[in-house]
Amino acid sequence: MIAGLKEVISEARKRGGAVAAFNTPNLENLLAALEAAEELGVPLIISHAQIHEGFAPLGRVGRMMRALAEGSSAKVCVHLDHGEDEEYCKRAIGLGFNSVMIDYSALSYEENIAGTRRMVEYAHRNGVEVEAELGRLPQREGGGEAQERPQDLYTDPALVPVFLKETGVDALAIAFGTAHGIYKTKPVLNFDIIRRVRALTDVPLVMHGGSGISRDEYLRAIECGIGKINYYTYMSYAGYAAAAEYVGKVPADFFHNLAAEAQRAMKENLLATLKVFSGGNL
Q1: Which of 81, 103, 202, 253 is catalytic?
Q2: What is the pTM of this model?
């Protein structure tokens, strides 16, 4: 069933955890995510990232996400992740996404506020919630080599109150040491940033770049105030590894068997992940 962004975050927080946001650029990712959430009885966010447009066009994958979310027994928010421009976000809203992230974090503070405010005004007129980002991860969505030191991009808690007042966003992604994708060195997290931001606002806080983080670090981030955690890379790698192993064992077979094996492995990865994100309460 369709649920709002703040609704699923609130429910997860009441259970002592954070809601998971899984990117679902194809059917196997989507089914693995929905089945895992349904099996555990937890709310979920399914996301489409604009960076995936080249192989998962929004007009096609978005309709599939919305239709399957409507038929799910879990509470599901259909979310656009890292929308890089307002027109793309508007397209997602037109397709039935009930939450969008406008990511102007690479712009100046003033430009971020101005662009985010325009998006919030449009989205709220259409009954859609908005996430934005203040501070920036050292790698673009999708991974790659970091060009800057993470600590140079951390969210400045002192800027948060004005940003929230000027934009009216419904959720805020903050930078405190995580990074997108696979990286060579283990991230060093600054949990004090989460605590300081949490002390300034009740707006839900979002953690991007969740790969490579230990169970204890996830639990500590949740305890400090994180209410939504984005997760994709390790789920996708689990599916790829299972498919590669299957091909090694069965060199010639139907593709649907290969896809089913990848989906099974991704669901297994997500079941374990959801148990962690639920604060260890499942």
Answers
A1: 81
A2: 0.92
pLDDT at 100 over 50: yes
CA distance 184 to 217: 18
Range of the domain at 20: 5-277
192 class by beta-carbon count within 10 Å (0-12 exposed, 13-18 middle, 19+ buried): exposed
| 282 part of a folded domain | no
Rounded Cα distance between 30 and 22, Å, is 8
pLDDT for 47-94, tens place per residue?
999 999 999 999 999 999 999 999 999 999 999 999 999 999 999 999
Told to judge if 81 belongs to the known catalytic residues of this protein, a careful annotator would answer yes
Q: What is the CATH number of the domain that holds 95?
A: 3.20.20.70
241 within a domain of the structure (yes/no)? yes
Q: Residue 70 in contact with residue 1, Cβ under 8 Å?
A: yes
Domain count, the chain: 1
